[in-house]
Design goal:
This protein is an alpha+beta fold. It has five helices and eight strands; from the N terminus they run αββββββαββααα.
C-alpha cells in the first residue's frame, strides 16, 4: 500500500502529501520485533502500510492481547492526541512496513496551521471516536446484562467516565 492511499490521508492534495512526506521516515520491522512498550514515552505516530502488528498489555508476567492490527492501521495515536505515555505494547506479528511521523513535527505543524496535518488529525480523531462509540455500546450491553451482580460498580464507573469527558475542570 502506498501512504497516499491511507484512509487518514486520502483527502490530501499532492502538495499537502509532499509537505507531509518531509516529516516522516520509513520503518521496517521483522516479525517479533517490538515497536512500542506500554508506559514509555514514544514521540511518534505510526502508519502501518503492510503486515500485522500485535497490540497487547503486559500483566503479571503474561500478555493480554488487545488487538491484531492489519494494514492500513494507525498506532501511537492515543499518545499523540492525549500526551499520555504509551497505553499498550506493540510488536510485529509479521514483517511490517510503517511510516513514522515524530510527534514534535506534528505538533509544530498543527501550531503553524498546516492543512495536511490538521486533516490527518481530524481523520484520526474520527477513528478514535468511532472506537469510543463501539466501546460505549458494548459497555452498556454488559451493564444491562450483568444481572445486578456488578451493576452498581459498572454504573459508578460509567458516571465517572462520562463526567471526565466534559471540559469542565472545576473540582
Amino acid at each position: 500500500m502506498d501512504i497516499a492511499d491511507f484512509p487518514a490521508l486520502k483527502s490530501l492534495t499532492q502538495t499537502q502529501m509532499d509537505n507531509l512526506r518531509s516529516a516522516w521516515e520509513d520503518r521496517m520491522l521483522s516479525a517479533g520485533e517490538d515497536l512500542i512498550h506500554r508506559g514509555e514515552e514514544g514521540g511518534e505516530i505510526y502508519f502501518l502500510l503492510e503486515g500485522e502488528l500485535e497490540v497487547y498489555l503486559p500483566q503479571g508476567g503474561r500478555e493480554i492481547e488487545v488487538a491484531l492490527l492489519r494494514a492500513p492501521a494507525v498506532v501511537g495515536e492515543i499518545e499523540l492526541l492525549t500526551g499520555l505515555t504509551r497505553t499498550a505494547s506493540v510488536r510485529a506479528k509479521t514483517d511490517a512496513k510503517l511510516v513514522a511521523i515524530p510527534q514534535e513535527g506534528v505538533e509544530a505543524r498543527v501550531e503553524d496551521g498546516d492543512t495536511a496535518v490538521l486533516k490527518m488529525m481530524f481523520a484520526i480523531s474520527r477513528m478514535v471516536a468511532a472506537r469510543l462509540v463501539a466501546l460505549t455500546e458494548k459497555f452498556m450491553e454488559i451493564e444491562a446484562n450483568s444481572g445486578g451482580a456488578r451493576s452498581d460498580e459498572l454504573r459508578a464507573f460509567r458516571a465517572k467516565l462520562f463526567s471526565e469527558w466534559t471540559f469542565d475542570q472545576s473540582p
